[in-house]
Amino acid sequence: MQRRGLAMGLLASLLAIVYLDRIERMSLTSELIFYRRRRTFMSTAVAATNRSRVLAIYKEILRLGKNWVAKDADRTLIERKDIVNEAKQTFRDNKEVKDPKQIAELILEAEKRIVQAEHYGIPILQTSTPPTSNTVSSHEGRETERSSGVRSTHFNPIAVVFARRYFAGSSISEDILSDIVKLCSTNAQFYTDFVSTVLCSNILEQYPVRKSYRRNLLKQLIDLLDRCGIEILDELYTACASCMLDSAEYSFRIFLTQNLDKVLVVLRESNQQLCYGTTGLSLWQASCDLANFLCCFTNMLNKSVLELGAGCGLTGIAIARNFSGCSVTLSDYDPKVLSQLDFNVGENMDKACSQIKVLNLDWTTFSMDQLDKIPDVVIAADVVYDCSILPALCGVLRMCLSAKQGCCAYVASTLRDPLTLKAFRDKLGLLL
User: Fold this and answer.
1) What is the residue range of the signal peptide feature (predicted)?
2) Average pLDDT in the 403-431 region?
């Protein structure tokens, strides 16, 4: 434990991240989700080709609207009408456009809208502007918590561990897989419930985990079940087949409560470790470990918490979901990271959740005036990776720790380069 409560030494192993090609849109012609690679439109695009593509997209959106099913069933008819009206109005507004480059941009935007609608369930265009350094975004919560749908009556502790890791996209050992197969062979009701409410859970339709992860795990289980002479349920084959094509730009991690009945946190992350020039769109193991440490071994009730370099926002969101009466500010700098933070906060807010805000924060120009509240606790996960940013990071920590008596900080860092971590410790020693 460093002076003034700065907790150090929380070392985490790296997640194995599968590198995938970035894509921009999906085809809507099948039950499976397909993607097409991003197209680069040149200003010399042939007008006839563009016109044909515009008409094809227009028909595609109308078809989408006709078959649309809203997340809230009561809004299905309303949202179908909204989709069709938006498409018709956009078509009318741009019918006089003749510049090939402008037409190409409109086509690309329309393709993105199809992805937004089909993949994320957003029926009509919703403007989302990343918060500026002088603004903070906040969210209203849903009325109730989300049920996981897991029927865990026949689950033993091993099955609980499997389920929590599976939904979170975490590695599962061969020993756990073997134990699960044994349970399936001795308890028919467990096998049925396990397949239908865990492996093939409906919640994975709304929040799909990384397909490569799910596909590999299901193939392992199917092989083990087959070796033991256990009949493979059709649902398993269907789920495995749905994961064969894996070119999605984003996937989700779902963190369940200890008893599996509720969804605690849902996070969207990029399927690429480095995306748009930033690592902040992917979830890193240090944030998982820090979230677990803070929720299990500290008391954040009624605390004001500032997270630096929040990335996907797991640690701060987990605190807000676990401790009542606290105020959490998630800060980062990259516009795309801020947009994703905003998305993840919105997905996790309900009436029982503490207040969460998203703030654009540049460490090099930081001042305490940018914060609504002086923090009681400062947290950061996996921010110590580049010596060039250490002076600014340590400067922010110094100002926050000096602003209020009793303020403390928790920093979790993956051990990559011991020299970088040593430089961080040395810099803190000079400042504190």
Assistant:
1) 1-20
2) 84
Backbone angles phi, psi at 380, to 5 degrees: -160, 140
Percent of the chain predicted with pLDDT > 70: 75
The pLDDT, as a whole number, for residue 110 is 75
For the segment 96-108, the average pLDDT, to the nearest whole number, is 76
**For 129-181, what is each residue's pLDDT tens digit?**
444 444 455 555 554 578 999 999 899 999 999 999 999 999 999 999 999 99
CA-wise closest residue to 370 among 136, 193, 169: 136
Query: What would the CATH number be for the domain defined by 3-17+270-431?
Result: 3.40.50.150
Considering the entire predicted model, what is its pTM?
0.64
What is the token pair recorded at 299? 């008391």
Number of CB atoms found within 10 A of residue 242's CB: 19
- 379 or 424: whose pLDDT is higher? 379
Alpha-carbon span 396 to 414, nearest angstrom: 20
What is the SS3 assignment for the chain?
Answer: CCHHHCEEEECCCCCCCCCCCCEEEEECCCCCCEEEECCCCCCCCCHHHHHHHHHHHHHHHHHHHHHCCCCCHHHHHHHHHHHHHHHHHHHHHCCCCCCHHHHHHHHHHHHHHHHHHHHHCCCCCCCCCCCCCCCEEECCCECCCCECCCCCCCCCHHHHHHHHHHHHCCCCCHHHHHHHHHHHHHCHHHHHHHHHHHHCCCHHHHCCCCHHHHHHHHHHHHHHHHHCCCCCCHHHHHHHHCCCCCCCCEEEEEEECCCCCEEEEEEEEECCCCECCECCCCCCHHHHHHHHHHHHHCCCCCCEEEEECCCCCHHHHHHHHHCCCCEEEEEECCHHHHHHHHHHHHHHCECCCCEEEEEECCHHHCCHHHCCCCCCEEEEECCCCCHHHHHHHHHHHHHHHHHCCCCEEEEECCCCCHHHHHHHHHHHHHHC
CA distance 217 to 204: 15
* Residue 413: pLDDT band with limits 50, 70, 90: confident
